[in-house]
Amino acid sequence: MTTAVRSQHRHSPALALLLGAIILMWAPGAFAQHYSHTYRYTGDVEIDHIPDHDEILPQAPDNLILRFSAGVTLVKLTMKTADAKVININFRYNPTANRVFIWPLPELPESEYYVVDWGVIDPERKLMSGQFLFSAGPDAVLPSSLVTEEDEEHIMVPDYRLVDPSSYRAAPPRD
Question: pLDDT, tens digit, for every residue of 75-130?
């Protein structure tokens, strides 16, 4: 019995070192992903989008694709160039909830990178919003390498969960 205990203790430091190494290899990537991708939300809905954040594409994409783990209502979708010029992507609000939004893009103007801002209302009526960057073209570089801290927007976003939705009334129809 004593031998088994000693053997177990000999493997403990090796196991701890292995687990520590795995955590150290995984943690920087997770930190970088959360640091570089602006995302505001406290609910359970998850998002995936194409293009991915900080992705370099060989050419401009034909569509933006937003995929959510639950049905959400898309309330905002904007796209800007690196110098903050708005690109008209013809977004129009549609109150129908969906899990996947495929948005066709016009021909994009030349830019070092593009910024996509989006916002949705989840099934629990919580606001979920985020931003991702991508670049496209043969000479494209990682957008995050071009964005400085001064370039980042610092906007206070109101917490709409504190607002009672029943307090809103529909505007009367115009003649």
Answer: 999 999 999 999 999 999 999 999 999 999 999 999 999 999 999 999 999 999 99
As a whole number, mean pLDDT of residues 31-36 equals 33
The answer to whether 100 touches 65, Cβ cutoff 8 Å, is yes
Q: What is the pTM of this model?
A: 0.65
Q: How far apart are CA 175 and CA 145, in angstroms?
A: 53
Residue 22, both tokens: 């795995």
